[in-house]
Amino acid sequence: MKVTLLQHTPDPEMAVALAARLCYSPIGIDELRERISRSDVSAFLDKIMSLGHQSVLEHASFTFGIEGISRATSHQLVRHRIASYSQQSQRYVTHRSQFSAVIPPSIAERPELAARFKSQLKALHETYAALVEAGIPAEDARYILPNAAETKIIMTMNARELLHFFGLRCCERAQWEIRAMAVEMLRLVQNAAPTIFRDAGPGCVAGPCPEGTMTCGKIVEVRKRFKEMYV
To answer: What are 156-208's pLDDT values in tens digits?
Structure first.
């Protein structure tokens, strides 16, 4: 898996702070920009974050390049609807050589099962290649490709939706692959907007576990891990 922060709103925290200050200020935007300092930005973001006034976070957006994830994970990812996605097409990209695939660690660590898994992947590719060779359109041949098949996707999400995304997908109860992707995304945006994402992560980082009786039971360990990640 490779996750890259391709670009983001220039000075995202300044953009958010200006939007928030504008709501309560009688002066114009140009004057606001001249008056606001870097320390003002941090202090004001601290205040609005503590109050839960998160609509202004939508003014900061982040674009990620994500490669080497499975179709099983991309199907979960696009369920987050407040985002923009562009994904490699299995309709237009034909797998001449064997498609790359993600093998879950629970299978990879058991040699006998891993061998059977790889054998099935090879058989699926051979059938796929035979269908394409016989003149079947790639858009129809792709029906045989598995959830394990790797994909690439570019995704843009605003800061408010990212906080929601991290709350769900950094959780220990999230599926392992999308959790690993979410944690790497969080690491990248913390460098770009440290105040906004300072307390980001699973719901238990800043409050009680939202999973109730379904809790993983590792709240102390999880909080420590995400605190160390920010530092």
So the answer is: 999 999 999 999 999 999 999 999 999 999 999 999 999 999 999 999 998 89
Secondary structure (3-state) at 62:
strand
Catalytic hit among 21, 71, 160, 169? 169
Return all residues near 73 (Cβ < 8 A) that are at least 6 apart. Answer: 102, 175, 177, 178, 181
What amino acid is encoded at 168 in this protein?
L
Residue 79 is among the residues annotated as catalytic for this protein: no
This model's pTM is above 0.90: yes
Distance, in Å, from the CA atom of 101 to the CA atom of 18, rounded to the nearest integer, reads: 45
146 and 90 in contact (C-beta within 8 Å)?
Answer: no
Give the rounded percent of residues in the chain with a pLDDT score beyond 70. 100
Q: At what angle do helices 159-169 and 176-192 cross, to 10 degrees?
A: 140
Write the pLDDT tens digit of every residue in 61-77. Answer: 999 999 999 999 999 99
Is residue 173 within 8 A of residue 214, CB to CB? The reply is yes
**Are the C-beta atoms of residues 69 and 177 closer than 8 Å to each other?**
yes
Buried b (16+ CB within 10 A) or exposed e, 158-175: bbbbbbebbbbbbbbebe
> Is a pLDDT exceeding 70 seen at residue 231?
no
Bridge-partner residues for 63, per DSSP? 7, 156
- At 102 the three-state DSSP class reads coil
